[in-house]
Amino acid sequence: MHPRVPKSRILALALALAFSLPTLSGCALGLSTIAPAAMSFGEYAGIEAAKGPDRNTAGPEDEQSERCDTLVQTPPGVEEVRKNADDEIESRQWRLIDSGDGMKWAIVQPKMAPPGGWQPKPGIAKLQFSPELASQLKRGGDPRYLAYAPEDTETIADSDQETTVTEVFGPATGKFLWHGRTYGYVLVKKLPCFKSLN
């Protein structure tokens, strides 16, 4: 008996093969590198956005394990964002690593960043977030996790990343521009699938 593959995953792979082009990469908030992914977030808008109770992923609970495996294979860009006391946006990058005790989320600590990895992002307005990112964050409030992937997909990797964002974090709620490309993004309260090292 073969394991059941979600229809959305089959559709993503089929369209990805049709749009295979050379690999590109970009950097969105100044910390994350986006490896290339091929479908519009709108095509996945029908996916159930309710959060499952145990692994905090979008969609039906019985498919959470498969979606978490997809996250390991093609992780999108993930930044934690907040407003500081001066009403400025700060961010830090998160990445999945193999901790030896399974996959875990870990903060990427740049060499010149202060402890904890938080850094101000004064140029974030240039990315033309729509809706505006600042309006979605409260000064001194709890941070949010921003997951993003190319929306104008050009490669199989672009398609895979976009599919991962939609299936694991939920359908895109906004977009921004980076180096002439449009990225879809979604804000969530918790990192899905795996525990954090930090």
What's the arrangement of secondary structure elements?
Layout: H1 7-18, E1 26-27, E2 33-34, H2 64-73, E3 77-83, E4 89-98, E5 103-107, E6 119-120, E7 144-150, H3 156-169, E8 174-178, E9 181-188
Antiparallel strand pairs: 1-2, 3-4, 3-7, 4-5, 4-6, 7-9, 8-9
Features:
single chain; 198 residues; alpha+beta; seven-stranded antiparallel beta sheet; two-stranded antiparallel ribbon; 3 helices; 9 strands; 18% helix; 24% strand; disordered N terminus
Can you describe what's shown?
With 198 residues, the protein is α+β, with helices and mostly antiparallel strands. The chain has one domain (7-188). 18% of the residues lie in helices and 24% in strands. It is built from three helices and nine strands. The model is unreliable at 1-28 and 30-53 (pLDDT under 50).
Mean pLDDT: 76
The percent range for helix content is 10-25%
N→C terminal distance: 40 Å
Q: Which percent range describes the beta-strand content?
A: 15-25%
Overall morphology: globular
Give the SSE order as H and E letters: HEEHEEEEEHEE
Radius of gyration: 16 Å
Short recap of the structure:
The protein has 198 residues and is an alpha+beta fold. It has helices spanning 7-18, 64-73, 156-169, and strands at 26-27, 33-34, 77-83, 89-98, 103-107, 119-120, 144-150, 174-178, 181-188. Strands 3, 4, 5, 6, 7, 8 and 9 form a seven-stranded antiparallel sheet that branches. A two-stranded antiparallel ribbon has the order 1-2.
